Amino acid sequence: MIRFNRFVTCVSLVAATTTVCADNWPQWRGPGSQGISNEANVPTQWSATRNVAWKTELPNGHSSPIVWNDRIFVTAAVEGDVVAGAKAVGHVVDGQVWIHPDSVAADRKHTLKVVAIDARTGKVLWDRTAFEGTVYDARHRRSSFAGPTAVTDGRMVYAYFGPEGLYAYDFNGRLAWKVVEHFKTLGLGTGTSPVLFQDLVIIQRDEDEGKASVIAAYDRQTGREVWRTVRPVQISWSTPVLVAAANRTELVTNGTELAIAYDPATGKELWRTKGVESNAIHTPLVGKGLVIVTAGFPEKRVIAIRAGAVPDDKRVAWTYAKGTGYVVSNILYGDYVYLLTDAGVVTCLDAATGMVQHEGSRPPVASRFMGSPVAFGGLIAMTSEEGETFMLKAGPKPEVVGTNSIDEPVFSSPAIANGRIYIRGEKHLFAIGG
Fold this sequence. Notes:
This protein has strands at residues 52-57, 66-68, 71-82, 92-93, 96-97, 103-104, 108-118, 124-134, 139-140, 151-152, 156-160, 166-170, 175-179, 195-197, 200-205, 214-219, 225-230, 241-245, 248-253, 258-262, 269-274, 285-287, 290-295, 301-306, 316-320, 331-333, 336-340, 346-350, 356-361, 374-376, 379-383, 388-393, 399-405, 415-417, 420-424, 428-432.
C-alpha cells in the first residue's frame, strides 16, 4: 500500500461522442480534456484590476469553472460548526487501523453547492445546495469537499462530490436526479471529475486498498446505473480520458497498479498495462497516437502507451522517471510534453519519442502550484497558489515571457471560453478579457 503524505485535488473528447462548441469549456481541462484552447485573441496580460471584465464573490472550493455559452458553473463547499459525535469512517491499511495525520473536517457540518453565473455580467443566477450535513469521510487539510470539476452537455450540469453524491441540474437550477453511494477516500477527499460519453455520465471511483474500486456509468437523463466494472487498483484521484483508437473509442484510466482502457459504452475492459506505481492523481495526456499517464509521488513516473488493439509487448512506447509533480497534471501541446513540478519547474520532452528537449525552466519567483496549466496561442499559462499566472512560450526550450497576478490565492485550474480566461481565486471568480 502506498503511503499518502499529503493530497490536494487536482479527458481527448471524440467528435462522435459529444458535440461541443469550440468556444465552450464544458469539463475538467476543457473541450478535449487536455487543457488546450484553439481560440484566438485570448488575453495574455492582466492584473487584479486591469483587463478584468468582472469579478464575483464565491464560496470556497477547489473545482475549476466550466463554461457553456453565457453560463458558468462551479461547485463550492461551506464548512460549518462542529457536530458532536461526528467522525469519518474507519480505514484499515495493511491490516491496521489507520488515520492520515492530515485528515480533517469530518466532525463538522458541510454545505455542498452548485452555483450558476452569468458569463456576461458575473451575476449569480442560482445557487443550489446539493448536500448538507456531516460527511462520510474526511478530507486532506489542503483539499476541499468541492474538489471535482462539474461537466455539462449544454442542457444539464453534472456535479460530483464523491461519497456525498452525483447531482444533475438543468440550466434553470432544477434538480433532475441524484445518486449517492458512500465509499472510502482514505480520509483525503475526492479528486476525479465526471466524464460524458454519448448518453452516459462516467465516474472513476477508486478507494482505499482497492477492495471496492469501480468505474461506473449512469444514464444522463435519469441517473440509472447502466454499467459498473470492478477495478483491481487502490485509491486514485485521476480523471479518465476518452481516446480515439482506430475504429473504436477507449476510456483510459490512470492507476497505481494498472493503466486500464475500457469500452465507454459497456464498461468492458479492452487492455491493461503496468501503472504508475505512485499516487495516481494526474489526468492522462493524449497526442501523437499515445496516451501518457504520469505521477509524481512517491516516485516520478511518465509512461507513454499505445492505445488500440496492439500486442501487449508493444503497448508501452517510452518511459521517463523525472520532472513530474505530485498534484499538478501535465500538458501535451503541439509536439511536446511539458512536465511540471509542484514548484513550477518545467521539463520538455518530445511527445512521440520521450527524448528530453530541455530541463529546468522555472518561474522567476519561488512559487507553489495546485492548479494545472492551460495552453493557447503558443503559450502555456501556469497559475500558482499565490495567484500569479506565468506565461510560458511553448517550444523545445520553453521560457517565461510574462507574469500576471490577481492578488488572490488560487487552488484550481483556469478555464478559457469565448475570448476570456476565467480564474477562480480563493474568494472570487475573475473574468479576464473584454
